[in-house]
Write a structure and sequence with these properties.
Layout (H helix, E strand, L loop, with lengths): L9 E5 L12 H13 L4 E4 L11 H15 L4 E5 L5 H14 L3 E4 L9 H14 L4 E5 L1 H4 L5 H8 L4 E6 L4 H11 L4 E3 L5 H10 L3 E5 L6 H11 L2 H18 L12 H11 L17 H13 L12
């Protein structure tokens, strides 16, 4: 398999997993969120990744979430399911279930905590592919694995039989562009292209999409990619300016957390403020409940035109 065996491209929200206040899965909200993303024209979703709090779910819950998302998507957008685990054998079991349920592909980081050496990282993905009869995306998430997949290692992974894509979340953006140039001829590349510099790299070297933390803006996110495909680079550049202005107001450098709390905690608050289907976080994440923090997030959304200002209070 290689990039030509799949059609994955465009904007894929990293899908949150909605939990109720008592900690139970909220499958009603999950299905509503799938429908919301379809209505907004998203090209795909990534389920049970970092934003999906896979680490806070039981194995059975991960299967339930995958099944519900695939069923609700019903072929209307691409569904990638996270199968990250501590061993390739465990990840493969999760991956086979997701593929049997109808997922378009699976995605995995290197094993968390283990801090694998390059040869070990390659061996992990090789074994995952041998145990999984389906397309695999590599997920480079240094903040969660303490492994940063550089261009040389990415090139080795791109040569593995079942690896067809990479979601590269390195905090080193220039490394990301170097990785793009190294592997884009063989596998699909998803990453931080939605900037002026990223747009230049897209035009020079190619690239396929972005897997972003949810989609606060909605329709403009997939529209960026559709503008790129149509050759309307002025429109794409104008929206890239919006993204570059908004991101540092909400997220820490490298995008690993928010200014007011953990990524998942802050994202769920922001989504709720925007009226998107959301839910609560689950331990080890803690909810953001400080009124001043929530007011500050609301102020950013208002400032950027994503949310109407509160109407004046009648005298």
């Amino acid at each position: 398999m290689d990039r030509n065996d799949i059609d994955w491209r465009g904007y894929f929200p990293a899908f949150i997993t909605p939990f109720r206040e008592d900690g139970a899965l909220d499958l009603t909200a999950l299905r509503a969120l799938v429908d919301h993303y379809v209505e907004q024209g998203m090209h795909g979703i990534m389920v049970n990744g970092t934003c999906g709090e896979w680490f806070a779910q039981t194995p059975e819950e991960r299967r339930i979430v995958a099944e519900a998302a695939v069923e609700q998507a019903a072929g209307r957008l691409t569904v990638l399911v996270g199968c990250t685990a501590y061993t390739a054998a465990e990840a493969a079991g999760i991956a086979r279930h997701a593929l049997d349920a109808g997922a378009d592909g699976v995605i995995s980081t290197p094993p968390p905590y283990a801090k694998t050496f390059p040869d070990e990282t390659v061996a992990y993905y090789r074994e995952l592919g041998e145990r999984t009869d389906g397309p695999i995306a590599v997920y480079n998430w240094p903040h969660g694995t303490n492994v940063d997949i550089d261009p040389e290692l990415a090139s080795r992974l791109a040569d593995l039989p079942h690896v067809v894509a990479i979601k590269d979340s390195t905090p080193d953006v220039e490394q990301f562009y170097a990785t793009t140039r190294a592997v884009v001829d063989r596998i699909r590349v998803f990453g931080p292209f939605m900037s002026r510099r990223g747009l230049e790299v897209l035009r020079e070297s190619g690239g396929d999409g972005t897997v972003g933390g949810g989609s606060l803006a909605g329709r403009p996110d997939p529209t960026f990619w559709e503008d790129v495909w149509a050759g309307d680079f002025d429109a794409a550049a104008a929206y890239a300016d919006v993204v570059e202005r908004l991101f540092p107001k909400l997220w820490l450098p490298g995008g690993w957390a928010g200014h007011w709390g953990a990524y998942q905690s802050q994202l769920k608050v922001l989504m709720g403020l925007l009226g998107q289907p959301t839910g609560h976080v689950r331990p080890p994440r803690l909810p953001i409940t400080d009124p001043e923090a929530i007011a500050a997030m609301r102020a950013v959304l208002v400032e950027e035109g994503l949310l109407d200002a509160d109407p004046p209070v009648a005298a």
